[in-house]
Amino acid sequence: MSQMQFQAPPLTKTNKIILIISLSCFILSAIGKAIGAFSLPHILGLSGSGLLKGFVFQLITYPFIETQLLGFLFSSLLIWFIGSEIERMWGSKLYQRFVGLIVFICGLTYGLVGILFLNGTALYSAPLFGLTGINFALLIAYATLYPDRQLSMMLIFPMRARTFCFILIGIELYMGLFSSHLSSWAHLLAMGLSFIFIRYQNLPFIHGLMNKSFGSGQRKPKKGNLRIVKGDKDDPPKFWH
Questions:
Q1: How many CA atoms lie within 13 A of 10 on its CB side?
Q2: Residues contacting 109, CB < 8 A, separation 6+
Q3: CA torsion angle for 53, 62, 96, 204 (degrees, to 10)?
Q4: pLDDT at 211 (0 to 100)
Q5: Fewer CB within 10 Å, N or C, the chain?
């Protein structure tokens, strides 16, 4: 029995903020490029050389930079459609922690690889930027929650969400192995982290990462073990409840 068809949810608060910041950076980047004054990807994008210069803010700013209109539109639609549905299911705090951990871990790993192994090469200063890593992590999460829902490859070919993600993994793996796209490995890391966070959510370390309270003044979480709870056939499995 197939699950119900994918429908666009309302744009949630966190994703609205992400898209507003990304749109602002996209416009600013276009202006900087047009007048030849600055390159925003090299300022706010993440690179090993940037981190060594003390630009630690790049660990947070790099996902918000987009330079191609179609890429920005496609990424924005994924954030809206998939990210908003996941945020509504998990709640804003858990969703923010999930996205934040993906961004930080992938960024830190990318920067350290550049510093330790690529110093003196062109890749050392090549910036990582864009919403692709977040989008791929959300797609993996979505495929775990709704493996049989229909997504459209290139907006034309319908296929199951799980199959869609396998194709994306294959594409990124090919690009990582047979091209100089170091960003592909960062995208694969984002996918892997997303899968691990959901599949192994009961491990104490992941449990702590995903459920740690946001400040000492907040209400303590309810007692109980994390577990996947499956409802009726049309209900998604409930994660982190």
A1: 4
A2: 186, 189
A3: -60
A4: 76
A5: N
Q: What is the pTM of this model?
A: 0.82
Identity of the residue numbered 183: S
Q: In 10 A of CB 154, how many CB atoms?
A: 5
Residue with tokens 């934040």: 100
**Which tokens in the block code for residue 88?**
């509504």
Nearest partner of 9 among 87, 73, 101, 76, judged by Cα: 87
Q: Which of 34, 37, 62 is nearest to 47 (CA)?
A: 62
Please name the residues in contact with 213: beta carbons below 8 A apart, sequence gap of 6 or more. Answer: 219, 220, 221
The one-letter amino acid at 59: L
Q: Which amino acid is at 204?
A: P
Residue 179 — very low, low, confident or very high, per pLDDT cuts 50/70/90? confident
Show the CA angle centred on residue 145, arms to residues 144 and 149, nearest 5°: 95
CATH: 3.30.530.20, 3.40.50.720, 2.60.130.10, 1.20.1540.10. Which one for 13-211? 1.20.1540.10
Is residue 227 over pLDDT 90?
Answer: no
- Asked if residues 162 and 81 have their Cβ atoms less than 8 Å apart, the reply is no
In single-letter form, the type of residue at position 43 comes to I
Between the alpha carbon of residue 93 and those of residues 13, 98, 172, 221, the distances in Å are 11, 9, 30, 12
| Cα 93 to Cα 99: distance, rounded to the nearest angstrom | 10
At residue 162, what is the residue type?
R
Q: Would you list the domain boundaries of the chain? A: 13-211
